[in-house]
Model the fold of this input.
Amino acid sequence: MAKLPTLKKSEIDQVVTLAIAKIKKWTDKEITKLSFKEGRPQCLHLTDDHFRVGNHTIKKVNEGCWRLSYDETDYDFMFKTSAINWSLAKQLHLFELATSLKYADQQYAVHYADFVLFKARLETALKKGDTWDIQRYEARKKQSQTRYLEANARLQKCMRNAKYYKLIGNPS
Done:
């Protein structure tokens, strides 16, 4: 009886690898088509923690960190909305808005981390009963809380500006 021709395991792996590469290429091409509508970048929600905004991709790294990637460059943001708005502003050539969004997000992240740190150190000093550390960390916590609230207000202002520009399009 004649044997049926069968592929060797290495040949099957090559065929599967080639098929996967072809599917990925086609998927990327279709997503790129959907990413722009009438010459404007669109935000595509691919998964719970993965977005595509025009040419940029945004992925969740961990809680409180979103990574925006394009052209071999990565930017980290504390908020998903900051990353999306920065990407839209950058692609619509609103560079001043994009710069202010990035700066406000970074300042918020820094001052929030300081506030949490001094709050934890104050709690430790209260447990120990060290009056010197209690006074020092209360003052620093108050300063960092003020900076944190100012950074939050600045970030909210930038978000309102981004929302305004997104609604009316490029004003120039």
Observations:
- The mean pLDDT is 86.
